[in-house]
Write a structure and sequence with these properties.
The complex is a heterodimer of chains A (about 160) and B (about 120).
Chain A: H1 5-17, H2 24-51, H3 65-79, H4 82-109, H5 131-156
Chain B: H1 3-29, H2 34-37, H3 47-52, H4 54-82, H5 86-116
The chains are: A mainly alpha (about 160), B mainly alpha (about 120).
Chain lengths: ~160, ~120
């Protein structure tokens, strides 16, 4: 390992998460990673947030229903503002994309939708990213957009 | 555990999340108004009703386990692709395993206590 870790990390991050100049498969890959990290961040926050249903970390026995209700209601009121709602719209988009594109990746992993093996010819389009796979990728984008629109109607009543 | 086994589990938990997470989203968004279902009490799908319902509580716990594995293994995959090395891989895997265990304990605690609340 001749390269220091930090420069290696910087190279990896710019290489992965800035998929310009690359093909569509690279976009699918970068988006899968970005949305995965986004949804993971939401998952962490969600575990902390739902912990407040029982009164949070300081409560280690069964609280009364009234106490739990007050803490939860305060939490919900704190979270009910346009900024967090907008965040949920983005999370909805990420979750929907990650789901459909994840199904595409699972199909790939188990050998479906691969097409027939053939000689690599110029301009060396990736053979693994077949027509049906492209269709699934665009469907994931469409589905994610629809989810975001649905989330807008739920949170903002648009 | 072999890397291939970990990745197989990644795909299996992913497909499981599609099903169990679907149930979770269904109870929150499609059984009534959003504000009604996120109220503490009132109706079959309010926050406390979900936790008090044995089937939904088990569903939440299952979702917690599946997402916990899938999310942290996903982060692990990203981190060991950043940099290769035995020490890095072992360190990343251990730290994320402990973080995952803590999350699992905290989430399970929420479900157990909420299930025991008397209303």
């Amino acid at each position: 390992m001749t390269e220091p870790l930090t420069s290696e990390l910087r190279k990896a991050i710019t290489g992965w998460f800035i998929p310009f100049r690359y093909n569509l498969e690279r976009w699918a890959y970068a988006l899968q990673r970005i949305t995965g990290i986004g949804v993971t961040a939401y998952f962490l926050a969600h575990i902390v947030e739902t912990g407040n249903v029982v009164g949070g970390l300081s409560v280690w026995n069964t609280p009364s229903a009234g106490f739990a209700r007050d803490i939860w209601t305060a939490t919900f009121q704190f979270l009910e503002n346009p900024l967090f709602d907008l965040g949920l719209v983005v999370i909805g988009f990420m979750l929907a994309y990650h789901t459909i594109n994840g199904i595409r990746l699972t199909l790939t992993e188990f050998g479906f939708l691969q097409g027939k093996p053939s000689r690599p010819d110029f301009p060396y389009e990736p053979k693994s990213f077949t027509k049906s796979q492209r269709a699934m990728f665009w469907f994931s984008i469409l589905f994610a957009t629809a989810t975001a629109v649905y989330a807008m109607t739920v949170f903002f009543g648009v | 555990m072999r890397e291939s086994t970990r990745m197989l589990l990644h795909y299996v938990t992913g497909l499981g999340i599609v099903v169990v997470g679907g149930v979770h989203l269904f109870t929150v968004f499609l059984t009534g108004s959003y504000s009604q279902n996120l109220a503490f009490i009132g109706g079959a799908y309010s926050v406390i009703s979900i936790y008090k319902n044995a089937i939904f509580a088990v569903t939440l716990e299952l979702l917690l386990v599946l997402v916990d594995y899938h999310a942290l293994n996903g982060i692990r995959v990203i981190l060991i692709e950043f940099h290769q090395g035995r020490g890095w891989e072992r360190g990343v895997s251990w730290i994320l395993a402990i973080a995952g265990l803590l999350l699992l304990v905290y989430g399970t605690r929420t479900i157990l206590i909420a299930n025991a609340i008397v209303i």
